[in-house]
Design brief:
By secondary structure, the protein is an alpha+beta fold. It contains five helices and ten strands; from the N terminus they run βββαβαββαββαβαβ. The strands form two sheets. The chain has an eight-stranded antiparallel sheet. A two-stranded antiparallel ribbon has the order 1-2. β1 and β2 form a beta hairpin. The radius of gyration is 17 Å and the shape is globular. The termini are far apart.
């Protein structure tokens, strides 16, 4: 069962528990995970944020909700299979997938930044799934540099972002960009954008005033 404000639901016996309501604090999703599984290199967590179009976000820290964490392939699929796909989310919603212990907040990663890919409407779900699988599979091969990823559902476009720890390391950043193009199978001439979190804090914007790359 899906709704515009609950990105996931989980059936538990005769009762159904919904989680991550965008307006009310919600408990973390509890899934009967197997005691053993194929462990991932890092633990991860999904987060969710929604605000109504035309409204102002008063407190981002309270608006963003942690949905669930996982540390194995089996746990990932148990969580992911209950999430609405991005194309089913209401406008001005964000899914975040971040390494355990990291919050998707600029101030928590002040030295970092993010690569940005703008998508035409209708493509978000496919690209998001490709990026999520590449992240948990450690396909970027840049040590601990990757923090997480975000898919932002907006009115006229959807925006994919990949966060990293060090905005000033151009060599690693270009490797991340090239790997991102590869795992998403983007055209060679695709315009990529980058923005340091310090700049986002300065202009209070995620996607304006970015650097452009090809």
């Amino acid at each position: 069962m899906h709704s515009s404000h609950n990105p996931t639901s989980l059936s538990n016996g005769s009762a159904e528990t919904t989680i991550a309501d965008s307006t009310q604090p919600s408990p973390e999703l509890i899934v009967p995970f197997p005691s053993k599984g194929h462990l991932l290199k890092s633990g991860w967590a999904f987060w969710f944020m929604h605000r109504e179009p035309g409204s102002k976000l008063q407190d981002y820290n309270s608006a963003i909700k942690r949905i669930a964490g996982f540390a194995s392939i089996e746990e990932f699929w148990a969580v992911y299979s209950h999430l609405n796909r991005p194309h089913d989310l209401p406008t001005i919603s964000d899914y975040h997938l971040f390494k355990s212990g990291l919050r998707p907040i600029w101030e928590d990663n002040i030295k970092g930044g993010k690569w940005i890919v703008r998508l035409k409407k209708g493509l978000a779900s496919r690209y998001w799934e490709s990026l999520v699988i590449s992240l948990i599979g450690d396909q970027f091969d840049v040590g601990d540099e990757i923090c997480g990823a975000v898919i932002s559902i907006r009115h006229s476009e959807d925006i994919l972002s990949l966060w990293n720890r060090n905005a000033d390391d151009s060599r690693v950043n270009l490797k991340i960009r090239d790997t991102l193009k590869k795992v998403l199978n983007l055209p060679a001439n695709c315009v990529m954008e980058y923005k340091a979190h310090k700049s986002s804090i300065t202009d209070n914007s995620s996607f304006r005033n970015t650097e452009m790359f090809r």
